[in-house]
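Table 4 source record.
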Amino acid sequence: MAQISYQLYSSRNFGPLAQTLEMLASLGYTNVEAYGSLLVDDTTRALLGQGLRAHGLSMPSAHMGLAELEADTAGIIATAKDLGIKAVYCPHIMPDQRPTDGAGWAAFGARLDKIGAAFRAAGLDFGWHNHDFEFKALPDGSFPIEHLMAGGPGLSLELDIAWVARAGVDPLPWIAKYADRITAAHAKDIAPAGEKVDEDGWADIGTGVMNWRELSKALSATKAKLLVLEHDNPSDDKRFASASFAAASAL
């Protein structure tokens, strides 16, 4: 059974970090996932470490941008060791950086895998975190994610399941396809059409159109150690954190 975690990016627009960590601990969370800007600044990183210790929270995973990963691989590995991070995932690239064909995506996978080799040598997991663009078919009918993962055979995958659905494809076959490479998953829900417009159409787990009971069952057959709850744009982060924690705990 994967442990429940919380992506701190969900609360980036709400209160100071210390307040967020206190809120999460009060709701029953024991794990959080950091995003890049919390880790690259010395002051923020120190505050994060202090907050984790003060509230009995662990941080088994983190996101870090490609530029930072390539510029300071050793430094990020050292930070991970210091904060108890076991897995680091590269989360995104901007549209102008995205390859346009299978060969380009395979080369990008190899580029990531080169970074990953250093993490694996240090005893850490390293992989990719998707959005929707990796699951939109190329002109030849193949998918970027297939080429990325083939080009980087050592990469793990933190599958953001709702983003897969947003791409217009069924997540279940992809969960099965990469069952032995999915080491974490992101969980949020998709609101019914026309609802939650102020939250970009996302919803708390269990309040949208996704069958999280079926998806959770499929994830149990993967190597996922973490189910990371995330909302890209909540209007109320405590509401999302509380409702989604209760729904995920009941799965």
